[in-house]
Amino acid sequence: MTSVQVDQAPDSSEAAGPGGSAPGEGYQRGLGARQIQMIAIGGAIGTGLFLGAGKAIAKAGPSLILAYAIAGLVIFFIMRALGELLMYRSVSGSFSEYAREFIGPFWGFVTGWTYWLFWVVTGITEVTAAAQYMSFWTHDSFPQWAYALIFTVVLYGVNLISVKLFGELEFWFSMVKVTAIVGMILICAGILTVGFSDAADTATVSNLWNDGGFFPKGIGGTLMTLQIVMFAFLAVELVGVTAGESKDPEKTLPKAINTVPWRIAVFYVGALVMILSVIPWHEFQPGVSPFVHAFEKMGLGVGAAIVNFVVLTAALSSCNSGMYSTGRMLRDLALNGQGPKAFTKLTRSGTPLIGTTVSAALMLVGVWINYKAPGQAFNYVVSFATISGMWAWIMILVCQLRFRAKADRGELPQSSFRAPGAPWTSWFSLAFIAMVIVMMGVDKDSRVSLYCAPLWALLLCVSYVVLKRRNPAGAAFQKR
Known about the structure:
Layout: E1 6-8, H1 9-12, H2 33-43, H3 47-50, H4 52-60, H5 64-88, H6 95-102, H7 105-138, H8 144-158, H9 163-193, H10 207-210, H11 218-223, H12 226-233, H13 238-241, H14 249-257, H15 260-278, H16 290-297, H17 301-335, E2 345-347, H18 353-363, H19 365-372, H20 377-408, H21 424-442, H22 447-470
Antiparallel strand pairs: 1-2
Helix pairs in contact: 2-9, 2-14, 5-12, 5-14, 5-15, 5-20, 5-21, 6-7, 6-20, 7-8, 7-17, 7-18, 7-19, 7-20, 7-22, 8-17, 8-19, 9-15, 9-17, 12-20, 16-17, 17-18, 20-21, 20-22, 21-22
């Protein structure tokens, strides 16, 4: 099959022509503005909103809306910091490459491998969520682990396609998610104003403060949801990974980044305001999608089935993006001499076959987790995904601070897309992330990730020492 015949990209890559490969990288610039926009929008709409919000509502009540709004502002600062770096140099590998340049090769090594791990773990999270969604129809008559296995294998097959087709699939996946959320907001608005469905008698905006107040679990309860909230926003940085395969990145990437505020305002804040106005917050339960539950309470059984299909699609879409990211990140590491050379190989259609295959194989760990602990699988992987994903955000902010300082001294050219309010917004974002990590240590459900992080750090340190002895070039930064 020609789509999986392999070329050695580092030796055969040529300078890019219009719409061709990035110089020295071998990728095809097959992602257009329309696809980049929807990938950016859809990247922030996944399991964290559709499934994780149920647990967060139970912990914080209506004040979860405020948590999403504040965290969303921080995410915008992070994305503008990333945008400043991307306009300085748009390259596949993104923040891993910037960490090598502005902090040192060791930090690029750590960032690349940690972001790869993040997407592997996130892939496990998403297939776990998808398997849970299937129980809406099967009522546990089919084992959860079997669904996880099926989804992992199918999505691996999907990722053996060209980047252009991947972008098209993600465009329509994201369109389904966006349409569903907008539709649900409109239905809730209709219930509040016109008064139809079974929920009309109790639907009122005062549900946001009447049932125990806006902070029914206190400020502490709101703070304890921050790791769930931040997990919901993980993947917004995916546009940085697509930089090496984007058509005209100087135009498409800033436009995608600037959509962050309204995406958060509509899809998170707006959706939660509507849901919690129609259905009192205490009726939502952990492990149950608040969107599906809302439609069931409204008496719209068909609507609940439709929404369950949508959230299933959202989870599979996110896992699909994860497989895309892992292959690219492993290849970036290999191109810099910080990973096995075999990961540099591309298919004729520009897909990093071996890196994607290895990542998909590791995602099968999710099948075992679903088999051994189906009830706790989601909570386990969410915590570890959050801490590893936030590492990428920390590196983005630190690199932006280093870049801005050098640019202000005249050592580097200024970016054409400067982050507003920097460096103060970057320092504020770093402080906010630090607070989230502290809260994760307080929460017994998420504390496991902080136990695993030092072990992963130790493994990376040992690996880097071995790398430096066997391949000194891998410990030296060379701008691509």
